[in-house]
């Protein structure tokens, strides 16, 4: 986020209650059960009052600037040239109350059969809910954010087209309005159920072979705010593991693992994209562009003349948002299900999954030294896209479907006709649009998947007298088409794929006119930091959707090399101990690529045409890399008794002790560091922790 005023006050409350039961029915049969309830509340309070905000002298209110000036509102401002956020609430899904109750029941039995088989089978039952009472903040976008201007834009939102003085970037101003404006509000409650059953058999064959074979079945169901089941799928996950003990003494092992793994589909999918009511949480809005006419007789202030000028052209004008009176279109809740209910197509969203193969070698070559090597391959497949598309009448709706179903669904929504209408005034290598071009787009649309390939090596040693040293180095590659953020390294960002724009507005394609606009911009390639051939390099993609060009490549979480070394020493004095530890990590920089905002000027003047400013990749994904970097951490801990049953512990931690500040995030628009603290490593930090155990 930008380093400008971003108030994010919120309260977190929660509780976890669980009850476990274990029973050894016999020496060969064991039962276990667990029931738990977790309640989490997140109260994202209204961002700030203006009494709070004016404490920052840069944001002194100025009524003369009007309601769209950042000094006078809490809208989020997005700076187009580097995609940083400023001024207002930084949580894109709104402020207000979120409640996340979760109930689970786990039942398991372990049964030993004969001398070599260990069976385990059970049930995992989980119910989750997300109850929202929130309001998304309105978003204003401009090329360059600035205070003290009526619209928070350095250029005062002058102009419809890209500005050559700004490197050809789109300098128009937009307002995304998430308010219902008198339309009835509904609740934003969604429910999710995940019921699983599994069976696993672990057995040995001779003195050298051990096998683990299993199968898991899961029924996933998610219901939206109206109770409609938007996901209802039964999935099967086979698992297989093999261990070969080379000498039968446990010191050298060859391992093989393979299986399929499903993660419960994020509830966020239902709350943001699959709701049917206007409730402040769903991604439904009106899109306005700041009205400005290039006609010399019309000034950008006041805007009433410009709005009247546009109305005289028969363009869609809506005066409810003042200067932002040029309504480009609307996305209304339930549009997807209106089409489904009409029988136009069937919606069958399937959970995505990960298939993996891991081959390993473990060698305990002395009492203190251990070596471990692994080859890892993951494929994450059947990903879900949430993108804007056109219905048979050319109006926008939010399509939520597995990418593999996109072509069939778009055909049912008159994609060919929409493509011909949208591109009627454009040319493709000198030729006009044809139905064959539209069919080719659908035939060649690529389903999304992600691949992770890695070789991992560990060399660990435990010394006498409390010493230990652990070393790990991983060589890897992560490739794919989309990147949605993810829940961490374990799923490669696959299970939160809701913010990627791959496949958006498939009828908005690369045209001769777009490339001519780039060519007319002085020093376009040089300004972008690209070779002089950068425009010609895009010509093979003419006629291809803007949101699909150059998308395959190394993803942002790809790290070709990660090396870690960690060690510690423990001194013990009776019931007291002193521990000294340290860690050094080195990793290669994150991949990135240059992008530009692309749109067809005539399309921007059509009603319901939000295929403006699509993110066009000027290079193959991952063509560049941030610098490699390292950091070092250290800690000291002292443990001591506080009585017969109590003990205390003090721990001092120092992170990034050498205060390294390498670049770790680059703007794909400018090729420069993002103008925010997150562009560099976190600064040196010290932390003191105290705990009591009993």
Would you spell out the secondary-structure blueprint of this structure?
Elements: E1 11-26, E2 29-44, H1 50-53, E3 76-79, E4 84-86, E5 95-113, E6 117-135, E7 139-142, E8 174-177, E9 188-205, E10 209-223, E11 229-245, E12 252-262, H2 267-273, E13 285-289, H3 304-312, E14 326-331, H4 335-341, E15 353-363, E16 369-381, E17 384-390, E18 396-402, H5 406-412, H6 415-422, H7 435-443, E19 450-462, E20 467-480, H8 512-520, H9 524-527, E21 553-554, E22 561-573, E23 576-587, E24 591-592, E25 595-598, E26 614-617, E27 624-625, E28 629-641, E29 647-655, E30 685-693
Parallel strand pairs: 3-7
Antiparallel strand pairs: 1-2, 2-5, 3-4, 5-6, 6-9, 7-8, 8-13, 9-10, 10-11, 11-12, 12-15, 13-14, 15-16, 16-19, 17-18, 19-20, 20-21, 20-22, 22-23, 23-28, 24-27, 25-26, 28-29, 29-30
Could you please describe the fold and organization of this structure?
The protein contains nine helices and 30 strands. It is mainly beta and 694 residues long. The protein has a domain of 94 residues. The longest helix has 9 residues. It is globular and about 85 Å long. The N terminus is likely disordered.
Average residue pLDDT: 84
How many β-strand stretches?
A: 30
What is the general shape?
A: globular
The low-confidence runs, each spanning 5 or more residues with pLDDT under 50, are 1-5, 161-168, 293-302, 485-497, 602-611
Count of discrete alpha- or pi-helical segments spanning 4 or more residues: 9
Q: What is the strand content? A: 35-45%
* Broad structural category: mainly beta
Oligomer: single chain
Rg of Cα set: 29 Å
Distance between the termini: 42 Å
């Amino acid at each position: 986020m930008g380093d400008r005023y971003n108030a994010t006050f919120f309260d977190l409350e929660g509780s976890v209650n669980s009850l476990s039961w274990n029973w050894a029915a016999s020496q060969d049969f064991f039962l276990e059960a667990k029931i738990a309830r977790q309640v989490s509340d997140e109260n994202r309070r209204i961002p700030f009052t203006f009494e709070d905000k004016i404490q920052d002298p840069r944001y002194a209110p100025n009524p003369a600037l009007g309601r769209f000036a950042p000094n006078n509102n809490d809208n989020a401002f997005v700076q187009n040239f580097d995609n940083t956020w400023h001024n207002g609430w930084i949580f894109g899904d709104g402020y207000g109350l979120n409640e996340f109750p979760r109930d689970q029941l786990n039942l398991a039995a372990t049964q030993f059969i004969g001398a070599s088989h260990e069976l385990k089978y059970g049930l995992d039952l989980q119910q989750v809910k997300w109850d929202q009472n929130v309001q998304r903040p309105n978003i204003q976008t401009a090329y360059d954010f600035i205070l003290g201007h009526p619209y928070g834009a350095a250029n005062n939102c002058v102009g419809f087209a890209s500005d050559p003085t700004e490197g050809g970037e789109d300098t128009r101003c937009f307002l995304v309005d998430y308010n219902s404006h008198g339309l009835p509000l509904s609740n934003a409650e969604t429910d999710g159920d995940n019921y699983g059953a599994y069976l696993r058999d672990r057995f040995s064959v001779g003195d050298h072979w051990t096998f683990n074979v299993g199968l898991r079945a899961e029924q996933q169901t998610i219901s939206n705010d109206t109770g409609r089941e938007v996901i209802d799928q039964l999935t099967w996950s086979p698992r297989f593991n093999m261990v070969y003990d080379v000498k039968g003494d446990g010191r050298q092992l060859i391992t093989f693992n393979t299986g399929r793994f499903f993660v419960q589909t994020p509830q966020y999918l239902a709350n943001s994209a699959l709701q049917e009511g206007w409730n402040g949480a769903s991604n439904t809005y009106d899109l306005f562009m700041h009205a400005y006419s290039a006609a010399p007789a019309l000034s950008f202030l006041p805007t009433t003349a410009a709005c009247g000028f546009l109305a005289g052209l028969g363009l869609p004008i809506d005066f409810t948002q003042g200067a932002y009176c040029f309504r480009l279109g609307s996305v209304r809740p339930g549009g997807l299900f209106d089409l489904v209910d009409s029988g136009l197509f069937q919606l069958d969203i399937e959970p995505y999954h990960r298939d993996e193969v891991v081959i390993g070698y473990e060698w305990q070559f002395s009492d203190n030294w251990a070596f471990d090597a692994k080859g890892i391959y993951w494929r994450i497949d059947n990903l879900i896209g949430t993108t804007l598309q056109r219905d048979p009448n050319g109006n926008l709706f939010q399509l939520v479907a597995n990418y593999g179903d996109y072509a069939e669904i778009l055909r049912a929504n008159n994609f060919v006709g929409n493509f011909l209408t949208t591109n009627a005034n454009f040319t493709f290598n000198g030729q006009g649009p044809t139905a064959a071009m539209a069919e080719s787009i659908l035939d060649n649309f690529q389903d999304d998947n992600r691949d992770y390939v890695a070789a991992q090596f560990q060399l660990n040693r435990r010394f006498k007298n409390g010493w230990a040293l652990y070393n790990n180095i991983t060589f890897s590659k992560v490739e794919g088409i989309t990147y949605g953020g993810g829940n961490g390294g374990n799923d490669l960002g696959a299970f939160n794929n809701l913010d990627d724009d791959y496949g958006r507005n498939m009828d908005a394609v690369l045209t001769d006119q777009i490339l001519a606009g780039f060519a007319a911009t002085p020093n376009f390639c040089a300004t972008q930091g690209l070779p002089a051939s950068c425009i010609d390099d895009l010509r093979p993609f003419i006629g291809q959707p803007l949101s699909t060009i150059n998308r395959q490549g190394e993803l942002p979480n790809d790290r070709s090399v990660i090396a870690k070394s960690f060690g510690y020493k423990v001194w013990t004095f009776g019931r007291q101990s002193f521990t000294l530890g340290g860690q050094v990590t080195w990793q290669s920089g994150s991949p990135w690529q240059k992008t530009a905002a692309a749109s067809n000027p005539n399309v921007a003047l059509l009603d319901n045409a939000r295929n403006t400013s699509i993110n066009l990749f000027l290079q193959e994904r991952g063509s560049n890399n941030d610098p490699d970097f390292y950091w070092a951490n250290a800690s000291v801990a002292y443990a001591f008794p506080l009585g017969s049953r109590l003990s205390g512990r003090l721990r001092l931690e120092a992170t990034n002790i050498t205060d390294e500040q390498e670049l770790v995030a680059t703007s794909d628009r400018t090729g420069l560091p993002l103008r925010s603290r997150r562009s560099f490593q976190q600064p040196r930090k010290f932390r003191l922790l105290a705990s009591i155990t009993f």
